[in-house]
Write a structure and sequence with these properties.
Distance between the termini: 78 Å
Largest sheet: none
Order of helices and strands: HHHH
Mean pLDDT: 83
Shape: elongated
Helix content: over 70%
Length: 139
């Protein structure tokens, strides 16, 4: 066994050990939530903005409309941070040619970060409408 082979096997065992947590349900749940919570928060924001808008108009409390986007934005940002934590746990790489658990985990974590980022942008765009339009505005 040459020095190169022994150093590669050492590197693979440390990567495999760090990715071993993503073979069972806590790691898989973390990856799933990091990927799906951002879009769910954006959809939840849209639905709740309509509901809260009607309630705020009826109760003459237009400032309540801004609570929903704050909560949904924090949920989407939290999902992105969860995906970032998972990506850092397996080594922060982006280019892999092997079909390993670490490669899959990196891909799904990067996917979760990007989806959460774009979901946060969608939530911010919907929140901008709450600043422009009055809840009781009639057409």
């Amino acid at each position: 066994m040459s020095a190169r082979e022994s150093s590669e096997s050492l590197f693979r065992t440390t990567t495999d050990e760090s990715a071993a947590g993503f073979t069972r349900w806590p790691g898989l749940l973390s990856l799933t939530l990091g990927t799906l919570l951002g879009p769910i928060a954006a959809l939840l924001n849209q639905e709740l903005m309509y509901s809260v808008n009607m309630w705020a108009c009826g109760h003459r409390m237009p400032a309540v409309v801004h609570i929903v986007p704050v909560l949904c934005l924090s949920l989407a940002v939290g999902a992105g941070l969860m995906a970032l934590r998972d990506w850092r746990a397996v080594g922060r790489g982006v280019e892999d040619e092997e079909a390993t658990i670490a490669t899959r985990t990196r891909f799904v974590a990067l996917l979760g970060m990007s989806i959460s980022f774009f979901s946060s942008l969608v939530i911010l765009a919907m929140w901008a409408a709450a600043f422009v339009f009055d809840p009781c505005m009639r057409a």
